[in-house]
């Protein structure tokens, strides 16, 4: 009787898990809808009063997404004013929702990622995640890794989908 061999464990396949790069820290959304007259009109004097009265220290070391959930047209300076107040406290500030924030965080991480360990090796980008990894992070990861990898797959070692294979 032959011994059962775990060929996946013995392979040169490298698993890349985006969840491992998930930045720690609180995420917060600042919705300015309530700072607008009737939720739709930005009156500069009243808006600036809200900005001055707001406790910005509650965003200490947080990642912040700025948004307006109403259909109001917000001038660009309004979000810039808020960002200037958040700057001393927040780790990162974006205009948009939480997915926009997560995408911006991963973009920064993946742009600076050293992929030399994947050079001429088969890589599988792990598909399942318990953390909110944005879909765009997978696109950025495959673009970055395929620059150096022999091949790139998606999923799990037991059931992966081939995405890229370097031509010989």
Describe the structure.
The protein has 168 residues and is of the alpha/beta class. The protein folds into two domains: 14-23 and 102-165, no CATH class; 27-90, no CATH class. The protein contains five helices and seven strands; from the N terminus they run αββαβαβαβαββ. The protein has helices spanning 7-10, 44-53, 76-86, 98-111, 135-145, and strands at residues 14-16, 27-31, 63-67, 92-95, 122-126, 151-156, 159-165. The strands form two sheets. It has a four-stranded mixed beta sheet with strand order 1-5-6-7, covered by helices on one side. Strands 2-3-4 form a three-stranded parallel beta sheet, sandwiched between helices. The protein is elongated. Residues 5-10 have low confidence and may be disordered.
Can you give keywords for this protein?
alpha/beta, three-stranded parallel β-sheet, 168 residues, elongated, four-stranded mixed β-sheet
Q: How large is the count of helical segments?
A: 5
Number of strands: 7
Task: Indicate the mean pLDDT.
Answer: 92
Strand order of the largest sheet: 1-5-6-7
How is the main sheet built?
A: 4 strands, mixed
Poorly predicted ranges: 5-10
Structural class given helices, strands, pairing? alpha/beta
Protein name: DUF2480 family protein
InterPro entries: DUF2480 (IPR018914)
Pfam families: DUF2480
């Amino acid at each position: 009787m032959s011994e059962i061999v775990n060929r996946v464990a013995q392979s040169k396949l490298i698993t890349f898990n985006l969840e491992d790069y998930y930045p720690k820290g609180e995420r917060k959304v600042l919705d300015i809808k309530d700072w607008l007259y009737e939720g739709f009109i930005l009156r500069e004097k009243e808006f600036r009063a809200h900005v001055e009265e707001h406790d910005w220290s509650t965003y200490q070391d947080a990642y912040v997404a700025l948004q307006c959930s109403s259909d109001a047209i917000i001038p660009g300076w309004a979000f810039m004013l808020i960002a200037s107040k958040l700057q001393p406290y927040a780790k990162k500030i974006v205009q948009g929702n939480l997915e926009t924030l997560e995408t911006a965080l991963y973009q920064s991480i993946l742009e600076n990622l050293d992929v030399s360990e994947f050079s001429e090796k088969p890589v599988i980008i792990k598909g399942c995640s318990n953390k909110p990894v944005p879909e765009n992070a997978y696109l950025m990861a495959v673009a970055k890794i395929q620059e150096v990898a022999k091949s790139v797959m998606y999923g799990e070692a037991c059931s992966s989908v081939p995405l890229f294979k370097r031509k010989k």
